[in-house]
Amino acid sequence: MITSMTGFASSKGERGRYSWGWELRSVNAKGLDLRLRVPDWLEGLEAALRGELAKAVARGNVTLSLRLTRSDAAAGSALNEEVLATALDALARIEAEAMARGVALAPSRASDLLGLRGMMDPAPGDEDNTALIAQLRAELGPLIDAFLSMRRAEGRALEQVLRGQLTQVSALVARAAELAEARKPAVAEALRGNLRRILDNAEGADPDRVAQELAMMAVKADVTEELDRLRAHVGAASELLDAGGAVGRKLDFLMQEFNREANTLCSKSQNAELTKVGLELKAVIDQMREQVQNVE
Questions:
Q1: Is 60 helix (H, G, I), strand (E, B) or coil?
Q2: 117 confidence band (pLDDT: 50, 70, 90)
Q3: Does residue 196 have a pLDDT over 70?
Q4: Average pLDDT in the 155-164 region?
Q5: DSSP class of residue 53?
């Protein structure tokens, strides 16, 4: 089973005076990018969470957020003197500038300042957070499980879409092979015409050079190799889907190979119907590539 890089999970918990909410989400990325937003006063927690996430996820832009509050936050917090001084200096400048311009401001309140970010810090040595950290770490496992479950569900949907698109590619390759076979008489006649023109104007020409030019004409008209490679790519993509796991990079590389063969098929078609099939192939391959961008 393949896995999508899109996922989301959330949960809530509490212990004593603390309550919290988790959010774990991810979107597609070329590699693994872990971004954690957790309180820095819970020593060692971020490193532990990062390690667990790195084991569970191979690719994706993953964001883990922990919002933690305490019911008696004011009693267990200390005023950040540096932040207070900065805020008061800024407030004084604002009031002075407003007065100079004749602008009346509403009186400032202490509660406005207390609500500023960073104004109140957890008091150092306030309590032993070992038990709290242990519980938070224990909750990460179920959160990751729910997160991975969503990524797998998205992966199942992706796999169905990709297998359907591979079926379309197989059908178009088969149609292209039929058209290539049907155009052989016309291609042979065109080559004979080219040969007559070359021979009529080949007096004094190097025979080896003439043979090379004729061989190149034949190669430019033959799409057998392109069709064979497209069939091989379909088989390789199916095998990757069967294998599952983190196959997104390999599938992405395969999409480039698909596109290269479709482009060559169009350039060598020399037939309106075959060109049409080649363009349809390119459209389906582009759709596949969009889906593959989200495979882990």
A1: strand
A2: low
A3: no
A4: 96
A5: H
β-strand partners of 22: 11, 66
Structure tokens at 246: 């983190």
Could you give the CA distance from residue 291 to residue 254 in angstroms, rounded to a whole number? 13
CB 255 within 8 A of CB 285: yes
Q: Could you give the CA distance from residue 11 to residue 64 in angstroms, rounded to a whole number?
A: 12
- Contact (CB, 8 A) for 37 and 65: yes
| Backbone φ, ψ for residue 195 (5° rounding) | -65, -45
Q: What DSSP string describes 80-143?
A: -HHHHHHHHHHHHHHHHHHHHTT---PPP-HHHHHTSTTSEEEPTTSS--HHHHHHHHHHHHHH
Helix (H) or strand (E) holding 273: helix 272-292
- Please say whether the beta carbons of 262 and 230 come within 8 A: yes
Q: Where are the alpha helices (H) located in 201-271, listed in sequence order?
A: 207-221, 224-243, 248-268
CA distance 141 to 152: 16
Q: What share of the chain is helix, strand, coil (3-state, %, to 5)?
A: 60, 15, 20
Token digits of residue 178 = 């039929």
CA distance 19 to 129: 14
105 phi and psi, to 5 degrees? -110, 150
Residue 263's pLDDT band, with cuts at 50, 70 and 90, is: very high
Instruction: Using DSSP bridges, classify how beta strands 60-70 and 120-122 pair: parallel, antiparallel or unpaired.
Output: unpaired
Q: What type of residue sits at position 177?
A: A
Residue type, 36: L
Q: What is the dihedral of CA 103, 108, 114, 115, to 10 degrees?
A: -50
* 255 neighbors 220 (Cβ within 8 angstroms): no
Residue bearing tokens 């309140």:
109
DSSP label at 184? H
- Give the pLDDT confidence score for residue 28 in this predicted structure: 94
d(CA 154, CA 6): 7
